[in-house]
Amino acid sequence: NLQAVEVDKWVKSVCRYCGAGCGLYIGVKGGKVVAVKGDDKNWNRGYLCVKGSYLPKILDAPDRLKYPMVRDGNKWKRISWDKAMNLMVSKFAEAIKKYGPHAVGFYGSGQSFSEESYLANKLYKGALGTNNIDGNPRLCMASAAVGYVTSFGKDEPMGSYDDIYHADCFFIIGSNMSEAHPVIFRLVMEQKRKRNVKIVVVDPRKTLTARNADLYLDFVPGTDLFILHAMAHVIVKEKLYNKDFFDKHAVFKKMGPDNKPVNVTFDEYVKFLEEYTPELAEQKSGCPKEKIIQAARWFATSKATMSFWCMGINQRTRGVWANNLIHNLHLLTGQICRPGATPFSLTGQPNACGGIRDVGLLSHLLPYGRVIANEKHRAEMEEFWGIPKGRIHSKPGPTAIELFTKFAEGEIKCLWVVCTNPGQSLPNLQKYRKGMASGDTFLVVSEAYHPSRTSELADLVLPAALWCEKEGTYGQSERRYQYLPQVIKPLGEAKSDFEVILTFARKLLTALGREDEAKKLFPYKTTEDVWNEMRACSKNTVYNFWGMTRARLIKEHGMLWPVPTEDYPAPGTLRRFTAKYGDPLVKKFDPKAEDISFYGNPADGNRAIIWLRPAVGPAEPADKDYPFVLTTGRLIEHWHTGTMTMKVPELMRAAPQAFVEINPKDAQKLGIKTGDKVRLTSRRGSIVLPAKVVDIPRPGVLFVPFHYPEKLINDLVTDAFDALSKQPEFKISAVRIEKV
Ligand code: SF4
């Protein structure tokens, strides 16, 4: 029981793992971290899940990387920081001098601190003039981000966890919250015990989340767009919509023949929905139509409906459209911008929202809602950063898959991967691993542990300070920014990525003969200096968090942007887009707004969009050669590629190895029993795993957790991606299974 350990002091901080962003206290004794306990004044009210509770054990694992190491043939050689930095700078500078700025790249992480990602973004886009910089949220949240922008004009959820206390219906689709976001799900279940709330779960696996539902809709993976349309069909047919709301706050649009959006009428929308009957949805998805009708009625008629979704919706070739269809239901019924009524995408990483989407560390973004493709936004950032006009390249850069393809093909000569593990987490993995291992290019990996499945492919590895060994800011799922202090010294010679990026930026610009710019663009002494620049950068945007000084973040238990002034009360804005329920910026950006203002096209009065998106299936459905659908996901005990949770003996005892879940009906037909070795084969690869026969996946579906480094299930997964968000379809790949 770590919480019972005696400590010298407790220091307020945040969990290192998921995007729920639980507040916690770190217990320090004799200069060592010995315990954590939940922060009872933060949103999580003192609760932590099993992963968070064992956090201290990730810090001094035997494979922590303590020194910079350089590849020497098949061996690794320890070198000094000076030599490591000089080697890296000379390689990057040489590539830039010879081939121009697009010869170098950066792959960042939703686990880095915001200040670190901001620096990297400024270096690449602002100083070097290349948009070859993307981050791992491209693999998990890109469709949610583009979904918000295409439906409402701006990214990020409008609601907050506070809505859980007000919702009467929870619509959970494509999310196993009970394992992936356990503390948020705990709050939902608490409401179920206390009040007469309804929980609807839509998922092809009967997860623990689904088992707690009042209504469970299971379906053939990839057919959920039919279910969402059929719900809209029922809402329209039974006149359960809120015409006053959408007349005032939404427009209907479809893509025209020239691939430009065109406005349509409500009647045209009704006509579009005609074919998407519950009967058609049942035929396509296998989900009984009565359940779809019931879900639609509860969604529309509850006092307040809150929807949650995550990777099951986002990791899809139609992920953006699926996001749009969820928003459609909220806009159609007016279940939005009121306490308890809101769409709410869940986030996988602790700082994917704050540090990547908000900071703009994706190849098409600039900080705080600005985009590369917008000339005015580029000009704003050029002025703000004090760089020459036209420095920011006008073409969005390559997204994750495209970035690693360019690296594999040698177009990008030098790539720096920070705080993430693409050697395990990319889809169609062997293709990209081969590219990363190529001898003609130069791969630098900043990592806390070595070897990881990525650092083993690197030319140079840099030891990274971990979690409470450094300071910075995280922004979690509900727009809450939280400060994490440095509590202990980094292990060995490990350094914070902030220090390393800053040093590299100055040295690289100097090596390129731009010493003056190095001083002018990167003058910072502390992370707070960068934080203050970020606050100023957000000022004239709907993200405005000028009022979140470092001192306030240290004192408060997180604050939700917008927080435009230093006297704006904590915890900030619980509900955006609505003046009545909180957003202080509604009037600023739309003086005519009454109580609600979205940020759509000004020609449409900034209204939100109800999209007519046809239901389209996955890139690779099951067929006669590969008759099963492989879906990958998470277990409660482990987090992402397992680099941290697999250092915790208690978690490893609970979930020691990879397996494949198979439905008992399929197992019986194939003569497979629990523990049998089975081979899974897709068009891209093959893997042998122990079988787990269990009534969780529906017949025809196989589930494998993607955490385990010795069993790279992503070898089998398709790298087809969404045309709008460029997020790959991890959730659906066709495979066959046979007993070995
Ligand atoms: Fe950490 Fe997420 Fe668990 Fe909270 S729910 S303790 S943030 S892993």
List the keywords:
740 residues; alpha/beta; N-terminal domain of TfIIb; Dimethylsulfoxide Reductase, domain 2; seven-stranded mixed sheet; Asp_de-COase-like_dom_sf
CATH class of the largest domain, please? Alpha Beta
Radius of gyration: 25 Å
Question: Structural class of the secondary structure composition?
Answer: alpha/beta
Strand content: 15-25%
List the ligand species: iron/sulfur cluster
Count of folded domains: 4
Question: Please, could you describe this protein's structure?
Answer:
By secondary structure, the protein is α/β, with parallel strands linked by helices. It folds into four domains: 2-58, N-terminal domain of TfIIb; 69-136 and 351-523, Rossmann fold (3-Layer(aba) Sandwich), CATH 3.40.50; 142-346, Dimethylsulfoxide Reductase, domain 2, CATH 3.40.228; 628-739, Barwin-like endoglucanases, CATH 2.40.40. It is 32% helix and 18% strand. It has a seven-stranded mixed sheet, sandwiched between helices. Helix 8 (224-237) packs antiparallel against helix 11 and helix 11 packs across helix 12. The two termini are 42 Å apart. The model has no long low-confidence stretch (mean pLDDT 97). Bound molecules: iron/sulfur cluster (SF4). Residues 15, 17-18, 20-22, 48-49, 51-52, 181-183 line the site of iron/sulfur cluster. It catalyses: 2 Fe(II)-[cytochrome] + nitrate + 2 H(+) = 2 Fe(III)-[cytochrome] + nitrite + H2O.
Short description:
With 740 residues, this protein is α/β, with parallel strands linked by helices.
Layout: helices, strands, pairs:
Layout: E1 9-14, E2 23-29, E3 32-38, H1 50-53, E4 69-72, E5 75-78, H2 81-99, E6 104-108, H3 114-128, E7 133-135, H4 142-152, E8 169-173, H5 177-180, H6 182-194, E9 198-202, H7 208-211, E10 215-217, H8 224-237, H9 243-249, E11 250-255, E12 261-264, H10 266-274, H11 278-285, H12 289-301, E13 305-309, H13 311-314, H14 319-333, E14 342-345, H15 352-358, H16 375-385, H17 400-408, E15 414-418, H18 422-425, H19 429-437, E16 442-447, E17 460-463, E18 472-475, E19 480-484, H20 497-511, H21 515-521, H22 527-538, H23 550-555, E20 559-560, H24 586-589, E21 608-611, E22 628-633, H25 649-654, E23 660-662, H26 664-670, E24 677-681, E25 686-693, E26 701-705, E27 733-739
Helix pairs in contact: 2-20, 3-20, 3-22, 4-14, 8-11, 8-12, 8-14, 11-12, 17-19, 20-21
The structure holds iron/sulfur cluster.
Iron/sulfur cluster is lined by residues 15, 17-18, 20-22, 48-49, 51-52, 181-183.
